[in-house]
Amino acid sequence: LLSQANQIRVVDFGLVTSLPTEVSRRLTSSEMxxxxxxxxxxxxxxxxxxxxxxxxxxxxxxxxxxxxxxxxPYAHESLHDTLRAHLDAPxxxxxxxxxxxxxxxxxxxxxxxxxxxxxxxxSMDTLIAALDxxxxxxxxxxxxxxxxxxxxxxx
Length: 155
Description:
Elements: H1 15-18, H2 21-27, H3 42-46, H4 53-69, H5 79-88, H6 103-112, H7 124-136, H8 145-154
């Protein structure tokens, strides 16, 4: 969604966790898939009730990828293949599609999409802090300020 001030707004993050626990449990039984498969964290593919902040970090990494290169990390013809890719496939590099992706952004994106939740940032605050650190201690090319603003608006 694009606001009148041309700010990007993500409107469907946190659907499961924002519902009352009793309702959430009924909606996310082990037989039901809740979410958009191209943006689901591996643990969420296995059990929707395992969605957590780490799953949101993963999904945000998928959104970031879409914003930067126009496609999610895994989008196969079948639902099964898409979910299997989230679980097992290597993390696709942004630099394979765009030559202007700086190494720090490639590393940030890769950490967002790590397969195990404990290997990702523990919160959106730690992710934003990592982006801030890159801005204040950069040794590479200057970072584009729109990226930090985008990440702040998506959280």
